[in-house]
């Protein structure tokens, strides 16, 4: 803990930032934080000072002596219970103003009800002192830290709704043609959603792929100009090649495989015949 009786800081004794690259805010509560202690705020942080639920002040970069203001910024403080002599207990919250990377993942369904996996990577930051106050007011602490995972959990439903708005009415093979439209829709909805928490959205990237690995490979084969049946044959050939089967090229071309001049297997070309080779070596 980087807190002593006289100096409060967000750095450890080794100079390591407690917030790092994954934490949006960290709360420090200690009985040794008293009026007159020195509060240090680094250049990439804001600091919110609270006491008994009331926000006393929001600080930018610098070093400040903690004092008890006559009026808090937010909330109220009852001193009568302590007979006019309140043993001040301060709560120091450091807010990260650096740009942080957040990732949200989930599933959407295409027009054919095929499962599509999406990944959204976006950068966020807290821009002003008012935004820092908005953050600690509207986003609850999970223990003593608000991290980027918690932001992703909150933003997840808004992202999923935006993506499904387009994906659910689009055929699976046409989804990437609409990726620009999806990105702009997600960006608009996510910007409005995060603004409530005092968070500014910067850059955003959206990636959507079929959840099934085999389906991704088949679509990739069609993308190079193969017909659907040719893509299936080439996929079969690739799997056979992985197993070391010498008949893999024959499966790709739909030709029989001969050993000693005798056909041992026939791979039909027509889509209506399916994928299983005819062991008799004769066409149906």
What is the secondary structure topology, with strand pairs?
Blueprint: E1 7-8, E2 23-29, E3 38-41, E4 45-51, E5 54-59, E6 62-65, E7 90-96, E8 100-109, E9 115-125, H1 129-138, E10 145-147, H2 148-167, H3 179-195, E11 200-210, H4 213-223, H5 228-242, H6 248-253, E12 257-259, E13 262-265
Parallel strand pairs: 1-3
Antiparallel strand pairs: 2-7, 2-10, 3-6, 4-5, 4-7, 8-9, 9-11, 12-13
Q: How far apart, in Å, are the first and last alpha carbons?
A: 77 Å
CATH level-3 fold name of the largest domain: Tetrahydropterin Synthase, Chain A
- Shape verdict: elongated
Radius of gyration: 30 Å
Largest sheet: 5 strands, antiparallel
CATH superfamily of the largest domain: Band 7 domain
Number of helices: 6
Strand tally, please? 13
Strand order within the widest beta sheet: 5-4-7-2-10
Helix content: 25-40%
CATH C-level name of the largest domain: Alpha Beta
Low-confidence stretches: 1-5, 77-87, 269-275, 279-284
Strand content: 25-35%
Number of structural units classed as domains: 3
Q: Which structural class matches the secondary elements?
A: alpha+beta
Mean of all residue-level pLDDT scores: 81
Explain what you see.
- By secondary structure, this protein is an alpha+beta fold.
- It has three domains: 7-75 and 88-96, no CATH class; 100-211, 2-Layer Sandwich (Tetrahydropterin Synthase, Chain A), CATH 3.30.479; 215-273, no CATH class.
- The chain contains six helices and 13 strands.
- The chain has a five-stranded antiparallel beta sheet. A three-stranded mixed beta sheet has the order 1-3-6, with no helix packed on it.
- A hairpin with a 2-residue loop joins strand 12 (257-259) and strand 13 (262-265).
- Helix 2 packs across helix 3 (179-195) and helix 4 packs across helix 5 (228-242).
- The longest helix is centred in the middle third of the chain and has 20 residues, at 148-167.
- It is elongated and about 90 Å long.
């Amino acid at each position: 803990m980087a807190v002593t009786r006289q100096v409060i800081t967000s750095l450890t004794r080794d100079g390591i930032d407690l917030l790092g690259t994954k934490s949006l805010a960290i709360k420090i509560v200690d009985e040794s934080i008293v009026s007159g202690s020195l509060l240090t705020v680094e250049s990439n942080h804001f600091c919110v000072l609270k006491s008994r639920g009331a926000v006393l002040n929001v600080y930018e970069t610098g070093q400040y002596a903690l004092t008890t203001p006559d009026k808090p910024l937010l909330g109220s403080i009852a001193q009568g219970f302590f007979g006019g002599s309140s043993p001040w207990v301060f709560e120091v919250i450091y807010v990260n103003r650096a740009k942080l990377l957040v990732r949200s993942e989930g599933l959407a369904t295409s027009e054919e009800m095929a499962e599509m996996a999406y990944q959204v990577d976006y950068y966020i930051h807290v821009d002003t002192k008012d935004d820092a106050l908005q953050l600690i007011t509207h986003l609850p602490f999970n223990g003593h830290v608000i991290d980027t995972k918690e932001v992703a959990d909150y933003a997840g439903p808004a992202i999923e709704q935006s993506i499904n708005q387009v994906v659910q009415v689009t055929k699976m093979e046409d989804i990437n043609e609409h990726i620009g439209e999806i990105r702009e829709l997600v960006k608009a909805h996510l910007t409005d959603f995060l603004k409530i928490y005092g968070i500014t959205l910067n850059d955003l990237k959206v990636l959507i792929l079929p959840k099934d690995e085999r389906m991704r490979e088949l679509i990739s084969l069609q993308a190079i100009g193969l017909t659907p049946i040719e893509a299936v044959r080439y996929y079969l050939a690739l799997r056979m090649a992985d197993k070391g089967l010498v008949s893999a090229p024959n499966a790709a071309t739909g030709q029989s495989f001969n050993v000693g001049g005798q056909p041992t297997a026939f791979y039909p070309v027509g889509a209506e015949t399916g994928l299983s080779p005819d062991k008799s070596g004769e066409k149906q």
